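User: Predict the structure for this protein chain, please.
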Amino acid sequence: MIKEQVLYERFIETLRRKVSSKSSLVNLLTDVLMIEKDAVYRRLRGEVSFTFAEIASISEQLGISLDILIGITTATHRPSHLKVNKHGSPTDADYKTISDLNDKIRGYKGNPDAEVALAGNLLPQVFYLNFDFITRYYLFLWELTLNENGMNYSEVVIPERTKTIQKSLISNMRSLTANLVLDFLTFQYLVTDLKYFASIHRIEAEDVLEIKNDLFGALDYIEKICNDGKFAEGGTANVFVSDVNLSTNYMYIKCEDFFFSMIKGFVLDGSVSYDQMAFKQTHTCIAAIKQISTLISGSGGRSRILFFDKQRKIIESL
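Assistant: Here is the predicted structure, written as structure tokens:
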């Protein structure tokens, strides 16, 4: 059994890892717990203990897994948590999570053993984040997923700070070796959904045209990556098209002793784990998907030409 003091120390340590700036942490806890700053300082110094209700509220706000704090790991139970960022209006904790991941990846820039992999039916951010109208579309889709009423596409605004930090993260990811598997119907899914949202006036005609132009631009960008076999940032790009439908979106990042895996949900978020066994299972899953996929980068010339010709016809139908 874990001693209460050890568990409490783990909690405080996790808080400081999540929000490294002491003043930012104090301000965050003041807002979450609705108590005075002096009361927060007393808790952080250990003079007064956080109540269980306070720990639960803080853990919910910062995405802290109690399983990880306690150390629950078995062959069938691996520590993970469902991370749902506030993409439309991110909190300091949301920015901190992305910044920490960005800093970790930046440290392995150019390392041949560092790797990122994605497989699924959603267009990966490494392909579209430079295209603002597509980026706004996925945020619009995320809003509809988590909000019963959602908002119209024209109302979606991406904060400048979010754009800057996400573009930095994606740029650093592009410096790693990447294995990327697209569902062969990814663009068809996109176009079908766009037509539907346009028909119910969630997306206006002029915005559909802007997204269409961005899709052509993104397709040209992906084709160039496939022709070159790498990103402009230097990372090798192995791009595959799955020969079967992919119903789930998987992702992992490996940098020596750092393991990050995600099973996506809610469009932009998902179940996140830093556990090595969970990473191995995700790695095995993506490796299996690659076995039933066609490589279209590097040497896959004929398959590549046929794929991109077909996607352009699909986009043109918008």
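The radius of gyration is 21 Å.
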